[in-house]
Amino acid sequence: MQVRIGVQNVPKEIVVETDQSADEVQEALAGALAEPRGVFVLKDRRSGRVVVPAERVGYLEIAEDERRGVGFGTQYA
Question: One Pfam family from the UniProt entry (predicted)?
Answer without folding.
Answer: DUF3107
